[in-house]
Structure formats: structure tokens, C-alpha cells
Design goal:
Blueprint lengths: L8 H11 L3 H10 L2 E4 L10 E4 L5 E6 L8 H13 L4 E4 L6 H10 L5 E3 L1 H8 L7 H15 L3 E4 L21 H13 L4 H4 L1 H11 L2 E4 L14 H19 L4 E5 L8 H11 L5 E4 L11 H14 L4 E3 L12 H21 L5 H11 L3 H7 L3 H8 L20
Helix pairs in contact: 3-13, 5-6, 6-9, 12-13, 14-15
The protein binds iron/sulfur cluster (SF4).
Length: 406
């Protein structure tokens, strides 16, 4: 059981106000591990975020450099955009030079909770190292905690016997962290050191209250490979790690696919909740088809909406440049908007957050254009598509004189 004192009372009070929930109820869910609070006290000015049971659905935006695109200023611009559009969490997925410097820069520049994937930093700098990887990994984890990282992805659920299970797949592995680990495990014929040293990882995460997001190395990279043995076997092992983390007093979330056809999404949520003992579920998309590169923010938002309606708690955005390039500013914005809509649509089905829709509808009924702009998720798009200001008739150019609302 998690000790609810891992976060101070003022954090609970802040969250309860936003989520409209009783403090004792929230504490109970944190103790049971059904809700995780992303909050590392070393992240100065962080706005703590609750993910899980009875909470509003949350969305995350990925930022960070890649070896081919290492403009740190651009990544900070993306961060500003995340703040402007009220993104709940950001993940720094940087893979390139000066990883720690950018991480510190991001954390020191935002109140949004920040997540990272320590295995990226480890393998970027130590690609050929066979021994002592865990020591270097723990050092990166320690530094991440000191820097104020609020949640970390740990791919500890992957086991060497899972390797056999991907043989029939079209795309064997799509997880970046998973592919680093698999390559190392195969090359040196060793078990996943994140699994064998999980207790040491728990100690560091506990020290800084970094929530662990248990990464799914075996997530399918195409809807054809969905919900296969490799994915489920890893999920079952992840469920065991959830219990070990709870025992050690460390908060966890579980990551999920990826690519799932529409009719299998509810089943995937059900499986995670069952095998992972009600731990918050953080889904990457999921994309409901593989044939729409350039529009993957839409294929993923369709999947994310159904996932959240079916019980997923946290949605990781996908941008139009998914599978094609590192997203630019415009792509990041498209991804944010698609996932803000997905999260909000799911909240409405849970009877939450309806006031803004009501206000928008009243403004629409009254042909109150300023009001409509104010309640829109993105006023700049409102202006862009309105193109022409309403005529003296006050109608828009769609129906003009024949405006039904008049
Ligand atoms: S003109 Fe047509 S589309 Fe425009 S506000 Fe009136 S009814 Fe709606």
C-alpha cells in the first residue's frame, strides 16, 4: 500500500479543488495505487497532476530533440505552446547531445509536470557497454530525481523469453526504449537489467517521489499485431511489478499500445485494469488504422477517445508527423488540440466538465461571436476559419440571410 503522506496536504487540497473530489477519497485512491500524483518536490513551482480513478482524463505532449534535429530553442518553444494550450504533462524524449542540460532547462522553465525515459540517456552515451549498466542507469535516475523529473518510464516488464514471441510479427518491436534493451539483451545474452535490479530502481524513485510509468517494450507497432502473446505476457509481468512498487511505496502507471483496431480498444483497457490491479493506464494514442500518415493525430485521437471512455486515464498525444519526422511547432499544436478534444469528449461521458459546452451553446444560440470565441479551445483557429466577420445580419457566411439561429 502506498503511504498517502508521500505528497503534502496542500498538494491534495489543490488537486481536490480542480478535480472536485473529497480529500479522503483521493487519499484512499492514492494509497491503493489507483491514482498517481505526479509531483517531485525538486520541480520548483510544479502544478501537481493526479492521474487515475475518478480524475479528469489527462493528456501528455512529447517534446525533445533527436540526433537529426537538435535545436533546443525550438523545444522550449514547444514547451511554451504546451503551456498556452493547457497541456497536463510533457515528456522530454530527447536523444542527442546535452540531454541533461535540456532536461534541466525544460524543468526550470515550466510548471507542467515533466516525464523522461532514462534508458535513452543511458544508451545514447553507452551503446557498447556490457557491464555496470545498472550503476550508470541508477546514476541517471538519481540525477533525474535531483533535477525535478516528476515521472519516469521504466521498461522493466520486458523479459528475455518475450523475444521468442515477436517472431510472427510484421513489426517486431516499435518501442524505442524496448529496442535498445532488446539489442543489448540479445548481444550479451543477458536478462533485462531493469527487471533484475528493479528494487534498486524503486529505492531511487521513492526518494524523489518520481512516479514510475512502466513502459511496454512489446507494444505492437501495427494493428495487425495487436493484443498478441508478446504484448499480453509483458503486461502480466508489468502487473507483478506494479504490486512490487506498491509494496515499496512507489506510485506507478502502466503504459499501453500503440496501434489497436477500434473494436479491440475496450478489451485492451479491461486487460490492463485486470492484470495491473487497477493501476492508472497511460495509452500512446492508440492509432486505429495504419494507413493515414500525415493524419495520425486524427487516427490516434479516435482511438484515444474510445480508450478514455473505456477507462484509460492518461493519453499521450500523437502528431501529424508521427512515423515521418520529429514534430515541428505546427505539428505539436495539431497533436495537442486533437488530444485536448479526445480527453474532453471522454470527460463529458463521465458527467464532468460540461459547463464550457453549455456556455458555448448559449453563445451560439445568441449569435454571440465574442462568446463563442472565448469558449473555444483554440481562439486562433476560430479566427482563422471564420475568415470573414459576420455580416450586419450577424449570421456567418455559411447560410447568410437563411441563418437558422436567427
Ligand atoms: S449562418 Fe448558418 S452556420 Fe452560420 S451561425 Fe447561422 S445557422 Fe449557423
Amino acid at each position: 500500500m502506498i503511504n498517502s503522506n508521500i505528497v503534502p496536504d496542500h498538494v491534495y487540497e489543490e488537486i481536490c479543488k480542480k478535480e472536485n473530489i473529497e480529500i479522503n477519497e483521493l487519499k484512499k485512491n492514492v494509497e491503493k495505487g489507483f491514482t498517481a500524483i505526479l509531483y517531485n518536490p525538486n520541480h520548483k513551482n510544479v502544478k501537481p497532476l493526479a492521474v487515475g480513478k475518478d480524475m479528469l482524463v489527462k493528456m501528455n505532449a512529447n517534446i525533445g530533440t533527436s540526433p537529426g534535429c537538435s535545436d533546443q530553442t525550438l523545444e522550449i518553444e514547444k514547451l511554451r505552446l504546451c503551456e498556452q494550450y493547457d497541456v497536463d504533462a510533457v515528456m522530454d524524449l530527447s536523444l542527442g547531445e546535452n540531454i541533461r542540460q535540456l532536461r534541466q532547462n525544460i524543468i526550470n522553465n515550466t510548471y507542467i509536470p515533466v516525464g523522461t525515459v532514462p534508458i535513452y540517456e543511458l544508451f545514447y552515451y553507452n551503446q557498447d557497454l556490457q557491464e555496470n549498466l545498472i550503476d550508470k542507469y541508477l546514476q541517471i535516475l538519481e540525477e533525474s530525481g535531483q533535477d525535478g523529473v516528476d515521472f519516469v518510464v521504466i521498461h522493466a516488464g520486458l523479459l528475455s523469453n518475450h523475444l521468442e514471441l515477436v517472431k510472427k510479427r510484421i513489426i517486431k518491436v516499435t518501442s524505442r526504449g524496448g529496442s535498445f534493451l532488446l539489442k543489448w539483451m540479445k548481444k550479451y545474452n543477458k536478462e533485462n537489467f531493469l527487471y533484475t535490479h528493479f528494487d534498486k530502481i524503486l529505492e531511487v524513485c521513492k526518494k524523489y517521489n518520481m512516479t514510475i510509468s512502466l513502459g511496454d517494450s512489446m507494444r505492437p507497432g501495427t494493428i495487425i499485431d495487436e493484443t498478441d502473446e508478446a504484448q499480453i505476457e509483458e503486461l502480466i509481468n508489468i502487473g507483478k511489478l506494479v504490486l512490487r512498487a506498491r509494496e515499496a511505496g512507489v506510485q506507478t502507471m502502466v503504459e499501453g499500445p500503440g496501434h489497436i483496431p477500434y473494436h479491440k480498444i475496450a478489451l485492451n483497457i479491461e486487460l490492463e485494469k485486470k492484470h495491473c490491479h487497477g493501476a492508472p493506464f497511460y495509452v500512446l494514442g492508440p492509432l486505429v488504422t495504419d494507413i493515414a500518415p500525415g493524419y495520425d493525430h486524427i487516427t490516434a485521437a479516435i482511438g484515444a477517445t474510445l480508450a478514455a471512455v473505456s477507462g484509460a486515464d492518461f493519453l499521450c498525444y500523437v502528431t501529424p508527423s508521427e512515423h515521418l519526422a520529429l514534430p515541428n511547432i505546427a505539428d505539436v499544436k495539431e497533436g495537442i488540440m486533437a488530444f485536448k478534444i479526445a480527453a474532453h469528449a471522454a470527460d463529458l461521458t463521465r458527467g464532468k466538465n460540461i459547463d464550457r459546452d453549455r456556455n458555448m451553446s448559449i453563445a451560439r444560440a445568441n449569435l454571440d461571436w465574442e462568446g463563442q470565441r472565448k469558449y473555444s479551445l483554440d481562439p486562433t483557429s476560430f479566427d482563422k476559419y471564420q475568415r470573414k466577420k459576420p455580416s450586419e445580419l450577424n449570421a456567418c457566411t455559411m447560410c447568410g440571410d437563411f441563418c437558422a439561429l436567427k
